[in-house]
What we know:
Blueprint (H helix, E strand, L loop, with lengths): L15 H10 L15 E4 L11 H19 L4 E4 L1 E2 L3 H14 L4 H30 L10 E2 L3 H16 L3 E11 L4 E3 L4 E16 L6 E6 L10 E4 L13 E4 L4 E7 L11 E4 L5 H10 L26 H14 L3 E14 L7 E10 L2 H12 L4 E3 L4 H9 L4 E2 L1 E2 L9 E4 L5 E3 L15 E3 L3 E2 L1 H5 L2 H4 L8 H6 L4 E5 L3 H15 L7 E5 L2 E2 L16 H8 L1 H10 L7 E2 L6 H18 L17 H22 L3 H29 L3 H22 L4 H10 L22 H23 L8 E7 L6 H6 L1 H8 L1 E7 L9 E5 L2 E5 L7 H26 L2 H6 L2 H28 L2
Parallel strand pairs: 1-2, 3-4, 9-11, 15-23, 22-23, 24-25, 26-27
Antiparallel strand pairs: 5-6, 5-14, 7-8, 7-13, 9-12, 10-11, 14-16, 17-21, 18-19, 18-20, 26-29, 28-29
Helix pairs in contact: 2-15, 3-4, 8-9, 8-13, 14-15, 15-16, 15-18, 16-18, 17-18, 17-19, 17-21, 18-19, 19-20, 24-26
Amino acid sequence: MKTVELSKAYNPKDFEDAVYESWKKNELFKPEDTDNGKPPFVIVIPPPNVTGVLHMGHGLNNSLQDILIRFYRMMGNPTLWLPGTDHAGIATQNVVDRQLKAKGIDRHEIGRERFLEETWKVKENHHTIIKSQLEKIGASCDWSRERFTLDEGLSKAVREVFVSLYEKGLIYKGNYLVNWCSSCGTALADDEVEHREVPAKLYKVHYPYADGSGFIEIATTRPETMLGDTAVAVNPEDDRYKGLVGKKVILPIADREIPIIADSYVSMEFGTGMVKITPAHDPNDYEIAERHNLPKINILNPDGTLNNDVPEKYRNMDVVSARKRIVEELESLGLFIGSEKHTHQVGHCYRCNTVIEPYLSDQWFVRMKSMADKALKALEDDDIRFYPKRWENTYIHWLKNIRDWCISRQLWWGHRIPVWYCRDCGETIVSREEVTQCSKCGSSNLHQEEDVLDTWFSSWLWPFSTLGWPEETEDLKEFFPTTTLVTGYDIIFFWVARMIMASLEFMDQVPFRDIYITGLVRDKQGQKMSKSLGNGIDPLDVVDKYGADAMKFTLCFLSNQGQDVLIDMNTFNLGSKFANKIWNAARYILMNLEGRELLSKEELKLNDFDNWIYHQLNEAAGKVEESIKLYKFNIAGQAVYEYFWNDFCDWYLELTKGSLQGEDVDEKNRAITVLLDILQKSLRLLHPFVPFISEEIYQKMPNTEGFLITADYPAWNESCQNKVLAENMAAFQDVIKAVRTLRSEFTIQPEKKVPVGIRMNTSFNAKDFFLKHQAQIKKFMRAEPLSVGFEIKDISGSVPAPGLGYEAFVYIRDMIDIPSEIQKLKKEYDKLAKQLAGVEKKLANEKFLKNAPEEVIEKENGKKREFSERIEKVKKYLADLKK
């Protein structure tokens, strides 16, 4: 064989793009062998917003999905990772609105059709960016099956679902109170409102009795809404006000009479115990109005200004300005009592952060209760599982407290609601197909509903609409239900629960079995990454600096199930160093091919160290498979890291150097044959975690064929187990590490050889192994001379390094300045004792234990163990030197 050249320095830019293109060109992302008897493994990608840009949260999510997909593809399962993007109604319309406004164009001036043309252009541009980003990070999606929530097939599915639910009586239209974003100009579902505490004021106001006999006192955080009051309510059990129920008061400024009513909702402790009722602008007031048949007066325009149902001087005024003016007018009328600081929860738009206004309007809704009950039963019946399990609580809580879903949005970009109204007879027609004639009177004078459907109304169909439903496609038969969903906790109710409800309603089965909830990506200080904090990391910046493999491996290695991932840019050094280690190990092996001949299986004889590395590879493969199936990504990543870096590189490669560098040609051929076999099997093990570098090296090896991406994964094999050998090798490593550590502690130069004696117990299990491999022990310890036996006659001048079943004596006392070493160790002991005391004090602090994140507490416990172990070792060294 000839030497295979790998470039001296590992540089992912040299090959990552080319490797990805070769996978695409050969259509290796498509599912194969669908009739091989193995169940398909299917993931539908959580579709990113088409106008968004991938952030590190996407980087984590897609990296973990890719690891799963590559693993199961190599395990022989017909594997499909179905990609796509979401039209993201509100977000996309906002992007296009801003772009048009920058050009001095108002969308209302150009009209709906022109606006949609512009939006499709923006969509195409951003979609290209998102797809290229996913390709850059190595996502092995089947791009031939890519979908978009507004494509023809998904649009058909949306219509089918809307009409079907309408026919079942589960979709209805009504004049109800909704969450209104005046900036986006649309209603929002309850789940799209983010509530947070804000500082405000509690204003106290007098309302005069209609008969002129005095005043009542009410308290409100929103005095401008009093213009829409239709009653004042008290608790029927409140003795202070029982005599007032039924009386009338004058609503200041609006100058209307409104009644005092009794309702048990009112808290006797809050404010004065008297509550103004504004049904069109408060959900609780709306419910009270329903119970008492009160009128509902909407005082707002869609843009958030006051409308024509308020006194003329307040019309078209924004809420903040109106609030200030009303307080001033109340003061001038002598009806304003005062105000005090008050903190309360206020809803904000999840997209633009505008304060949400409760707003009475005509909207379309879905009745959710019956579907929610089915989704709860699916969890009870163990049809779905959450990883980590604790997220079941979020799922259960939302479903048990579910409200009807407001699905209409006052936008132009989205699925237009398939409802037509006849202008002549007033008939409402709900149809799967375009309607041109009234089904009641035959008129063609029709107009379609202006509103579009909530973006999530198409997304909740994603697991089956992407596979061709409502058509009975081959993909739908083959790949539904899907297998696993990987997503973030923040859309458990937005998306996860709704997909389960939709699938149970229309497919009679759950859309996936496993739901893996990723942690959040945070900075090193534990803060969530965001644009406002400026602490975000662009995945493409990571790829540019370190490579896609380094990013994927690092994120996997740190993905401890149920915990957030804390990173900064330097964190990705971990993956980069690992990739570099792989490159250098492969380069070393491939540089030693010159003149070598590969032996056949029949000719090949394995030594103890060969059998040990096969055992370790087998153990790593078993641990990876077990961990991947339980979504314990960090354990899988650590397993391949420990195997390749420690077992293969630090031990096995070093142990084979004597064979490769010796004069025995037959031994060289034997050693290189084993090394090449182990390397190609190791690359198979590594591929899901570092796909680019593993494929690049695999393609250059003389003992491989085809593509690594579709090669078999090294499945655990009981016949490769050799526990006795593994235990012997562990003892072999322990004694070498003990001596090396001791040499390091006393600053013995690496090139200097020291006498070592190893005294074994007669019951020591590895005694024969030690005796057999004295030459390797001697070489690794840099020992001269080395004696191994059951008796060591003279241990004077040595420092002992005890182990389990043996004791190593390292004769270094004559090589060191003992008083100086004792002084150095005493200083280290004092330093360690101080550090240990500080950690123990922190861990004894109940406030710290209660408030600190779990990973911070574990880090401190780790320090405690480390300091304690080190102290014990230093004490032993001191005792030995003082003998």
